[in-house]
Amino acid sequence: MMNAxxxxxxxxxxxxxxxxxxxxxxxxxxxxxxxxxxxxxAGKTTLIRILTGFxxxxxxxxxxxxxxxxxxxxxxxxxxxxxxxxxxxxxxxSVGQIGWFTASFYPDGFLQNYRExxxxxxxxxxxxxxxxxxxxxxxxxxxxxxxxxxxxxILDEPTSGLDPMVRREFLESMIGRxxxxxxxxxxxxxxxxxxxxADTIGILHNGAMQACESxxxxxxxxxELTISMDDSLVTLPELPVPAVAMLExxxxxxxxxxxxxxxxxxxxxxxxxxxxxxxxxxxxxLEEIFIAHTRRGxxxxxxxxxxxxxxxxxxEPNGGSSGDAVIASGxxx
Amino acid sequence: xxxxxxxxxLVWKETRQIVPLVMMLLAVSAVLFLIWxxxxxxxxxxxxxxxxxxxxxxxxxxxAGAGAILVSHEKESGTWNWLASLPVPANSVVxxxxxxxFGGLVLMWIGCVIxxxxxxxxxxxxxxxxxxxxxxxxxxxIAHSVYVLFCGFYTAWRNRNAFPALLWxxxxxxxxxxxxxxxxxxxGPGMGQYVDATQKMWRMGTITTIAIPIMGWFAVxxxxxALSPRDADILSDDRLQSGIDAWRPPPPSNMxxxxxxxxxxxxxxxxxxxxxxxxxGLVSMLAMGAIAWLVATNSRDGVNGLSGNVVGVLLGSGLxxxxxxxxxxxxxDGAATRLKFLADRGVSPARVWLGRLGFGVSVLCSAALLxxxxxxxxxxxxxxxRMDGVxxxxxxxxxxxxxxxLIYGVSQWTSQVVPMLAASAFLAPVLSVLGLFFLISAxxxxxxxxxxxxxxxxxxxxxxxxxxxxxxxxxxxxxYWTITVVALFVFVALPVIPVAIDRLKFPSMSSERFxxxxxxxRGHMRRSSLQSVAMRQSNFQLYDNxxxxxxxxxxxxxxxxxxxRDLYSPDSWVIIGDDREVPLRADEYVLQxxxxxxxxxKLQWEQNPxxxxxxxxxxxxxxxxxxxxxxxxxxxRWVDQECADVLEIWLTQTLADESVAGLREEPFMQDAIExxxxxxxxxxxxxxxxxxxxxxxxxxxxxxxxxxxxxxVSANDYWFERVPIGWRSSxxxxxxxAVVERCLALIxxxxxxxxxxxxxxxxxxxxxxxxxxxxxxxxxxxxxxxIGPECVFATFQNCSYPGTQWFAPWEETARxxxxxxxxxxxxxxxxxxxxx
Lengths: 333, 836
Prior knowledge:
The structure holds two protein chains of two kinds.
Chain A: E1 6-15, E2 18-28, E3 33-38, H1 44-51, E4 59-64, H2 73-79, E5 80-83, H3 95-103, H4 110-120, H5 134-146, E6 152-156, H6 164-179, E7 183-187, H7 191-197, E8 200-205, E9 208-214, H8 215-221, E10 222-229, E11 244-251, E12 254-260, H9 267-271, E13 276-283, H10 286-294, H11 311-314
Chain B: H1 3-39, H2 45-52, H3 54-77, H4 79-84, H5 90-119, H6 121-126, H7 138-158, H8 162-187, H9 197-226, H10 263-274, H11 276-298, H12 305-329, H13 336-344, H14 349-378, H15 384-388, H16 397-417, H17 421-446, H18 450-466, H19 468-473, H20 478-493, H21 496-505, H22 511-527, E1 533-534, H23 555-564, E2 584-585, H24 588-607, H25 612-634, H26 638-656, H27 667-676, H28 679-701, H29 706-710, H30 725-751, H31 757-768, H32 809-823, H33 825-835
Parallel strand pairs in B: 1-2
Keywords (chain A): ATP-binding, Nucleotide-binding
Protein name (chain A): ABC-2 type transport system ATP-binding protein
InterPro entries (chain A): AAA+_ATPase (IPR003593), ABC_transporter-like_ATP-bd (IPR003439), ABC_transporter-like_CS (IPR017871), P-loop_NTPase (IPR027417)
């Protein structure tokens, strides 16, 4: 088994007034494109700041490229390319000057790679950063992060500001990097894009990892059932093991239930239950899965459990107190 | 990774960031040096001392600003995070920033030394020309600037924003001075004794030298910590809240829908809450400055030593607080990038402008009212004795508000034009002081009226208000810069306009008249003796002839010699020589002292008329003053005639005093009467001196720069000494003929017994046209001496104006006195015959 590029152990980060991370365990294997999804304030940026050595956690530990980012931040930063969601560059420098300046801190070849990248993006080297558009600045920041061919690329909202063509090209290059054994760790709200490139998806909600699986497994494990009942007051039947109901919504006599680990063969068992008129099954998109995981009440321990919404019953590490995440692997992609 | 490349890249970046500050401060230094070199010869000694500290202050300003530029600006702009994400050791970043900052400081010192040498300022500094700040030698200042540099880096690394970092520099920067003063107070001389300057210098140098590595260590540690991972918050218990929580804003559920009825008030609230600690710090500095001002203007015993230094530092910090309140207006939440939030929501630029300036203006108004109320409560210093102990004279409320408004206005203008806080925070105080100096010069040197100056003060506010829309929208295009440049031009040109108009209106002498008077002047010159005797105070010598003044003198010998002086002898107060045919040159100080002692002796004789000794002492003074007046009338210097007038006024007052009626028949009194009754001789002497002085001045000024003449190197040193210096140069350069002509007309009118009011008003217009009413001017009735209880000594103040006492009531009294003597000649002729 290959060593994980990123590994965290019971990582906890508490700020005054909020818990950004709660005992997070995570392993990201090399050669994968790992997408971290989460709504605003879920703890994504805090996790990235800890992984890049900018923030000490309240408790727990992390290792990146086999180095401790707190005690060996330089070793980490030499191996990592990092682009923040709002990269602020020295705007008094020209595009060429900032490449020359940054090349001072990396091995030979950085400047050559950077200039090729800039040329590809058609940005003049003599142009000042301050006159560049938002998209052009993003391209410069990406070029700077990629020019030393890092083992791990950490991207916080990487495609923000990029036009659709460049965005597509960039995302495809991420797949190429993963194929060459490099690892990409990206945080994004653009779920459709993530769906196109990511091997593994982690969904962070309220500081805890709600799901962390390969894209295919995640999509395959979640099913939306529409069950028609003969009476709106009748409760839903128990689902066959190992299916677990994650969320239920009433629409008159119809119930929409999001179920984990559901198999098509289970439909007949449900149809035979008293009061059930019809059962329809539909595969969910990643966006629907994300919304399901982050919707209010989902995985929230403080909310009272409903009759079919007892997370503890599921026995799955889906946001409980431990917040453990499934080990991700790029093989399933 | 190539280590050499790392250093090269970092040094290049830091150098590029610091060079603008160095260039900017050197440019400002050059401007200040130029102004100083052009004006220093015309300034009094205290202002020269202020000029001499410029080369010491500018490197110190750089030292304080380097940390703000290299660290705080990076933090505020966000580039700090990007730099920290690069694989570069923290020590390299810290060391490079400190090294480049230090290099810039060396450049600043070299630049200031070169500028000092070019403008000749280094002689003033090396000669210790200055009080207060300039009392320390340059090496101590260099050491202190290095210390301040480290302080700047320390505070910049410890604070997230530039403003609190700059505020924290102040207490750290004065720490060595405080430690020095405390150590001197602890182990030095007692109260009322002088501190050994050399000892103080060494102590200050030692303390600063010790402080440098300490502060350097703090700076390096702070830099390393700033580049290390940020510590997690230490929370003991979620439910446990700190005491500060009680002061937080109410929870959202308790908030009212609209906290203020006026949106300007909301913007003012925002100004305060942007950085509450900065606001509190600035207000505290201003309050301290106001208190120091009140102490300085009301202290009976004067402030010196430690208290003087404290008052000076607090006054300086108060002025700095005013300037930084101005900078505060358009930085932080007032920066263009943040004001765009309001612009996007359609808030009127005028209302935003009001909101941004509201906080600063209200704080300054409070400070001005505090000073005003305090002055009303305490009153003004009552007597001259108390005035001696006052460091600064009190100023009117209007003047205080004008000074506040100018410093604040220029500073807020600077912060709008130079959006980088770290730069504007240092540029604004310098520019506002420069603006203040410019307007004070316009008022003091050219007599520009307060109304014009207040109009100038309003220009920075008008400019920022006008450009507010463009500033908020972030579109500082050609229109913005055009308005700014035009406003700057108007600010500079406005005080010059009234002066230029008056200069254009200044009359000149016609060529025909010039030819006639020039010939007459040359005739007088040929007939006059060029030799003259300067009066002096006494022949007293404390040291022996062969002894140098800095050699030790035996205390007993010194006391004996001082006791041997006869303080009631005119030889101790005014020495004029024995030759009555040689013209005498006046010394106002000597004459004033002699008149005061003579007045005292007159009172002593009045108290005991039978005391022969008192009478003899009084007689000797009257004789000396009479002879001095005669000698001065022989002089061809205009100012000597003015001083002779003062002596004759005193003699006339004395002779007319009924209390000395019993002495009028004495020969010394008869001689005095003889002098003051000579009306025609006095007019001849005045005319001759006027024309010869005019001629001599023209001849001396040929081939000289105008500044040399303005500085008073000519034979007519005292001409127009109290006329505003700029206006004086106008008179000497182009209007001298008109003044001479008007004075001659005054003499002719007076001789004929005609009214002289028109000529006096004409002279007032020529010499005081830019300011002051005739009635309260030097030619006004209240200043023209009549015989009465008026203080004759005050007339010396007007000696630099020609003809202020000509044909004043005292001359009529003197004339009448001569008639009285002729009527009593029956009684006096035998005495004269006997005397012959």
